């Protein structure tokens, strides 16, 4: 059974940084595209970033481009989301997800496995 576990969330002031981690088990991580999504209270889940299985291609939502960086370490079965210049509107529960078919999609429908989420709160 695949399992994704996020960590690294917390409370930070606007302009600060956080680094989220997601460690996977029970799946072929090195052949899976990985994505980060977020969901704010009262809003739908939205795409944040995705990375191809080899790490050679990355994709970002316009709202985080230039501030967030997705990366992965296949030796550690871990994907990261470095978040800089955080804004209050980045406040949400952040989820990592695995796409076993490697599509690196921006659509949540393409991801088969999800983590439990980690809360990120940015104060103004």
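^ Assign residues to that structure.
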């Amino acid at each position: 059974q695949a399992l994704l576990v996020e960590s690294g969330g917390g409370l930070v002031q606007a302009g600060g940084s956080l680094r989220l981690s997601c460690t996977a088990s029970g799946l072929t991580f090195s052949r899976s595209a990985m994505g980060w999504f977020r969901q704010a209270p009262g809003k739908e889940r939205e795409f944040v970033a995705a990375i191809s299985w080899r790490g050679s291609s990355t994709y970002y939502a316009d709202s985080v481009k230039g501030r967030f960086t997705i990366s992965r370490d296949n030796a550690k079965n871990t994907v990261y989301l470095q978040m800089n210049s955080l804004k209050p509107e980045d406040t949400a529960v952040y989820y990592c997800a695995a796409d076993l078919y490697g599509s690196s999609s921006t659509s949540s429908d393409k991801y088969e496995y999800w983590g439990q989420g980690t809360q990120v709160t940015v104060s103004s």
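The CA atoms of residues 31 and 106 lie 17 Å apart.
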